Amino acid sequence: QVQLVESGGGLVQAGGSLRVSCAASGRPFSLYGMGWFRQAPGKEREFVAAASSSGVNTYYSDSVKGRFTISRDNAKNTVYLQMNSLKPEDTAVYYCAQSVYSTGSLLTSPVKYFYWGQGTQVTVSS
């Protein structure tokens, strides 16, 4: 049974930083791409960042490029999202997800992910 458990969300002021983590279990972590998505109230879930199975290839949405960094530690079965220069519009529930693919631009599409965490709230105050 696959489990993805996010942690590290919280309240931060605009311009601040936060790191969220996602611990995975149930499948060979190093074989699959991992992604972060977010959903704000009244909006659809959107892609934020993804990392290939090895972590060598990373993908970002234009809205977070240059501010957020995705990384993964395959020895710890954990993926991270370092968020810097946070803006109020980054406020959302952040979800990690595990793909059925290992790499490629397909990792930017939520339909390519079978497994999802429960989400962690990130709130950025102005």
Unreliable residue stretches: none
Give the strand content: over 45%
Task: Report on the biggest sheet.
Answer: 7 strands, mixed
Helix and strand composition category = mainly beta
Total DSSP helices: 0
**In total, how many beta strands?**
11
How far is the first residue's CA from the last residue's CA? 40 Å
Average pLDDT rating: 96
Shape: globular
Oligomerization status of the protein chains: single chain
Question: What's the gist of this structure?
Answer:
With 126 residues, the protein is mainly β.
Note the main attributes of this structure.
126 residues; mainly beta; 4-stranded antiparallel sheet; 11 strands
Walk me through what this model shows.
This protein is an all-beta fold. It contains no helices and eleven strands. Strands 2, 4, 5, 6, 9, 10 and 11 form a seven-stranded mixed β-sheet that branches. It has a four-stranded antiparallel β-sheet with strand order 1-3-8-7, with no helix packed on it. The radius of gyration is 13 Å and the shape is globular. The N and C termini lie far apart (40 Å).
Secondary-structure map with pairings?
Layout: E1 3-7, E2 10-13, E3 18-25, E4 34-39, E5 46-51, E6 58-60, E7 68-73, E8 78-83, E9 92-99, E10 113-116, E11 120-125
Parallel strand pairs: 2-11
Antiparallel strand pairs: 1-3, 3-8, 4-5, 4-9, 5-6, 7-8, 9-10, 9-11
